What does this fold into?
Amino acid sequence: MAFDGIVLNSIVQELSVLKNGKVNKIYEPSKDELIFSIYANGNNFALNINVNANNYRINLTTKSKPNPYAAPNFCMLLRKYLIGAKINNIYMNDLERIAFLEFECLNEMNDKIIRTLVIELMGKYSNVILLNQDNNIIDALKKHDSENKDARSIMPARKYIFPDSKKQNILKLNENEIIEYAKSQKENTLDTLMPNNFTGISKMFIQASLEKLNLSNTVTEKSLREIYNYIKSIVNFNNGKCKKYKNNYTITLEEKEQLENNFFLDDYYFSKSQEELYKNYRNDLLKVINYTLDKIIRRLDNINSKIKSCGNMEKYKIYGELLIANIYRVDTLKINDNFVELENYYDNNEHIKIQIENNLTTSENAEKYFKKYNRLKNTLEVVNVQKKDTEQELNYLESLIYEIDNAQDIDSVNEIYNEISENILFNDNIKKSKKTTKASNSSLENYLKLKIDEYTVLVGKNNRQNDYITMKLAKDNDYWFHAKDIHGSHVILKSNGDMPKMETIIKCAEIAAYYSKAKFSSNVPVDYTLKKYVKKPNGAVAGYVIYTDQKTVNVEPNSGINLK
It folds into this structure.
């Protein structure tokens, strides 16, 4: 969104509906945002002021936002000075991206005074500043002091200085002055000349205007006159409407409804913030899972190394047995002080060299090899169990990554967060929230429900839902589907005690293939069996089951939306 002076002018003109309104409440949901609750002309309005570097704006909003338990200092100050105040005027100077809200207030002596809220919407320098009637700063959302006396400082008790701009004000020039000024500039295209030299005009607005007016981008007297009159028409008569241009939005000359641009911005930036929140939440969760995944992989590598080191344990058992079998011959068969050569009756009596310690007897040397064998045998038994458990954990983490890759909104990501916040694997890497330590019934019941050949088909969208539809909703004679050896959703065919046709089985298998990691493949093996053959081991992670008596069909993935 090109939030330039043209857009702000349209918004400010629409905000005239707030004139003579009374400020009832003031909130500060975040460090960059203020919400004013205003009663005007028999209606309640919420005025949103946002000075985030990427999403700066002022507009009416209908979106509710959570507020901190304790109001920040600047919010408390605004409440002190502006609660109960009447809005006298809302205006801006020319096309600068600065809006002014003028309030009529009462001082300590109940005398009427004027206070002004300045909203500077200038990227990373955006700010909200409260002024007294002498144009001195009472306080600001973002304070800044400069050692340079000539530089602009935003500090309490300082005089408010309007930001300096070297650009021209197009509203104070006529057509001929615009043309003469353009001749003195080096730019030869309108979409560079206008933004570089005139206040409050963005490149995107000029490009959209050229397309609307069917003009070339070349700087000519004709094009300058048409662009000038086009801008004057939008600004003076408030005919500008926020419209899509290419992959973004800007103002174009078009009739609109009352407050349309305000609520367009409200919806646009709300969707944008939700998308950003979703991406950040998703990426943060992926970092946690990938960090844990790396630890599990390192643990598995360590386990495999131990298993490999146990590969020679049978050799030590043979050494011990051969020493015992030749207990009376060892001294005569020594090659040197450290080895003895014996016939290996396990290998066609081939000679084998066995290392011994001369300070030990033959039986003690044999006992030493037996202990080494038993130690490695016990180690192998333990690490084999550890490997099985670790591989299950690895498989579970990979299923979580699959879920996050397929999560479409914040609610879906939050369900995954709820799941992992209770898992011991993540105890060191995730902060638990009291609000999200248990999945609500509504989130569990948010599974996909389809109608296939008059049967109901349930599809889990995450591990919790997979457990819920399989272990809670499915009956023993219902059919259970899952892509073979691939991460994916559980699919339940509610058979109602019937034996469905093979055609129906294939359709459900296609759905299971679609809601799996192999959804883009053309030939996916899918296992299916009766639910009574599906079991969940005690202590197993969410979504993990074992099953028997399955059959397998190869199908092409299908979402099931078009299946009947």
User: Anything to note?
Assistant: Confidence is low (pLDDT under 50) at residues 432-439. Residues 260-309 form the longest helix (50 residues).
